[in-house]
Amino acid sequence: MAKRPPITNRVKDLRDQHDQMSQTALAKEIGVTRQTVIAIEQGKYSPSLESAFRIARVFGVGLEDVFGWDGD
Amino acid sequence: MGFREKLAWAMMVIMAGTGIVYFGWVHMQSSALGAWAPPNIAFVAGYVILVIVLAIVAGIGIGISRPSEASPPMDERERLILFAGEVWAARLLAVFILLTLGDFALNQNGNRLFHLVFASLIVSQVSEYVFRIWFYRKGV
Question: How many structural domains compose chain B?
Answer without folding.
Answer: 1
